[in-house]
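Long-time lurker. I teach an intro course on protein structure, and each term I like to show students one example going from raw sequence to a predicted 3D structure in token notation. This year I'd like something fresh instead of my usual example. Would anyone be willing to generate the tokens for the chain below so I can use it in lecture? Attribution to the forum is fine with me.
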Amino acid sequence: MSGEDEHGGGGAETPGAGRQRSRRARLFRAAGIALGCALVVSLAGAAWAYWHLNQNIKSVDIDSALGDDRPAKSMTTPSPYGAASPSPIPSGALNILVLGSDSRSGARNQELGGGSSDGGARSDTAMVIHLDEGRTKATVVSIPRDTLVTRPSCPRESGGSTSVSYGAMFNSAYSVGGPVCAVKTVESMTNVRMDHYIEIDFTGFADLVDALGGVTVTTEEDISDEDSHLELDAGTHHLDGTKALALARTRHGIGDQSDLGRIGLQQQLVKALLDQVDTTNLLTNPTRLYRVADALTDSITTDTGLDSLTELMSLGQSLKSLSSATTETVMMPVVPAPSDPNRVVANEPEASELWESLR
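-- Reply from a regular --
Happy to contribute to a lecture. Here you go:
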């Protein structure tokens, strides 16, 4: 038997075969390096995106400012996982005060809101969002900004306190004491603990609607409002952020031209936003998801319990079963104020009964 047969036809390797194996080895190494680089870039990009979104969020330490002199927190069913291992997704009842600020500071806010940039701001929109235990149902209660209330003494950020004011406009609380005074005023008039606080301004609302791809609303009457610059025929419309904001601000072009008519439009927009989120499928569209997250985090001010991306994501995840069909919108019952027909006061006992139902 020849030497070639003894070695299974091994013989000496030809120069061409050696060069082919060498080229394949270099290609595999290059592919491995490229894959490793892509993985590093991807992880770095994800880390930067998380850092960027986290840095966007502004917050106010309302709990420290108000201390313990507040309504009791909501009583909820204990977690089935036990105290040592809480459920990763919260599910207890929750009350969130959401304010829409009418600040004209900044070029875009001034452009969208009109008027002068005086640096001041009021709570143009105020909603108490009550999430039922289980987070499958919600009640959104709008508080008219023209409501006359007893504004409590509030701590100032610079030190000292504001004085108690009787018969003050509800939205003046934000003007004199910011988010802390707004929360304290709502808690004082409702005896309901505000577990969280979220504030959004003109620009933020418009950008959020645009990032979601707009919202669809149906109006029952023609709207023509010179102040909000909205011209809209009765019917169904898909609105971009600028027009959606104009609809939220419209008051002179509908009904009795009061803040009460505007509240109905704002509540309609809340449900339209929920519908848009449901149909957008954000989890299957990472680019749009990032745009929405960027617009949201860049435009809101929260309490310190929601001032991280992780906390906001946890809240959002807990609301995945919420829809417009399971969200009820109401307005705090009011009647014209005896002292001023252009203002309103809480209609009792209906208003107290409403807040009691949330407690």
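Some talking points for your students: The first helix runs from residue 3 to 6. DSSP finds eleven helices and 15 strands in the chain.
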